[in-house]
Structure prediction request, 658 residues.
Amino acid sequence: MSMGHFFKCKLLILFAITMLFAKNSYSQNSDSKDAFRKVKPLKESWQSLRFSEIKPEGWLKKQVDDNLKGFVGHLDSLVPDLILKDDIYGKDRLSKHVKSKDVGAITDDASAQSQFLWWNSETQSNWRDGYIRNAILAGNSNHLRKAKEYVDRILSTQDKDGYLGIYDKELRYTFDNENGELWSKTTLLRGLLAWYGYTRDKRVLTSIEAATKDVLVHYPINKSHPFYAIKPDVGGITHGLMFTDILEGLYRITHDETYRDYALFLYKDFSNQLLNEDAQQPKQTDTIYNLKGHGAHTYEHLRALTAAYYASGNPMLKDALFNFLHKIDQATTPSGGVIGDEWIADRRADATNAGYEYCSLQEVMDGYLNLLLKSGDPKYGDKAERVFLNAAQGARHPSASCITYLKTDNTYYLTGGKNGDTTQKTQTRYKYSPVHQDAAVCCVPNAGRIAPYYIQNMWMKNEKGFAAMLLGPCEVITKWNDVEVKIREITNYPNNFNIDFEIEVAQPVSFEIMIRKPSWSKSLSVTPSLIEKDNYIVYQKTWKGKSVIRLQLNPDIKVLRDQNNEYYFMYGPLVLAHPIDAIEKVTKDFPLAGFHDLQYSPVSLVIYQYCNEKVFINETNKSDLHFKSIMLNPGNKRKEEISLVPMGTTILRQVTFK
Prediction:
């Protein structure tokens, strides 16, 4: 994930974070050991559809196409040294003789760099994961061909014993400190799982299973310690907890409980080690403990704790999960952005002074989607939509192919430092870039993953039928009892709130259609009339030919307060922002035409204050959502009319108002 923080954060900051952790050292007692006992494993409420059975339409399809035309389709050309020249899974596997490597973070500290030689595996494989998924969703033949060539090449690097990874034989599985063994496999195999979901190529599944069994042999369950380290700050090792993603993916394909049992073991060993990580079970059982760690680590580990709870059914892990989610809420800004700039550092969310990293947005959204699938609780759909539609879209450039590495809800400057801060000379993350190589090439690959992961979870299924979990334009082509089923969701949601569901079947077949009812909808109308159950709209029938369900959601404009008692506004799932006119500065041109690093300064900065006036939708513009209100200009003490728009369309903006 976020690799540059080990170089860019001042040593004093790192020391302070370490001391915060040290004040809350935890040892395993008999009670906490009981937390990992299997009580009664839980069944997941929903199942994922095969990757590629859900295809985006409308604005989502355009975003996927833009990804391939932009940084997702060209990152290998933008940073060839990191992706093309370093065959880290093949001929350039790491050995004890490799002391340094170009890992994409600009630093003169060779001794520090040597600790993170696994970085290129993350850059390459997270990018490939997003690239493969975007190519599949777009149905682009050229990119699909390139994806297949990549998959074939990776399969050719697999050793006879099943090993897929970045280390030669003398290094693999023999570590007592920083390494990328499990993490490099995780990022690689996630992409292969997507390709298998699309192609059903048995070679790919066989390869994934062989690589996973190689891990189980060398780190035997309950007889090894994959997370042991002689030092408590180990980024690659603790990223490796997300090997859980691969185990859960294989469990859903094979229904082999061995994979879930191993996920529980990984979380147990992770929790038992002396590590500066938030998600360890003893820390999350402690309601007083506050989140402190590197944001991307903390939020991705939500999935590991969730997996451990479902694998065990242990009420102690349920309590830890509940506490963890509450603490994440405390670190969440109005947009759904979660503190991660780069450390959470025992802070509460702040729309101006706490930034979030794009990596963290992907990880926390994926955590909510995982909880939605497991629990069926529609509130996690609300949370996932809020992150994706607001924070994530608001950190993408509205027209150029680039993202911000870090951003705040209230963004008054994007000139490198947070909101114009120049005290930390090495801070460069608050700007737009298609690469961010001056920090680390981690957020850009994750920005290529976020839309495909969202789209993959728009629909789910269970033993009764299908459910629209996340709303938006898409088409589902799947089968029910061997009968082909097509479901088109025709809408411009969230830019309007009328949705037509066209259900077409090849022959009569009975199943249920469920639609998640968003918590913000004050009322709705459905034709034909349906029943509501547990915040889902439910329709059970024998489907014949083509049928249409028409849904109209009725949002209102809500005035809300954040944790700092500042006001903000929502319309349906959208957080509104006052856009600030900005001066653009191109700070770097790339050899590939059309790609630039961009910074922005306000033309004239006014930070408005709320004065209890209503917010109105601007009815004169029917094609886009525009709003207006009266706010106080504290400079001239006058009330002025200002515009508000969905924050996902903005560059500089004000989201909260004192």
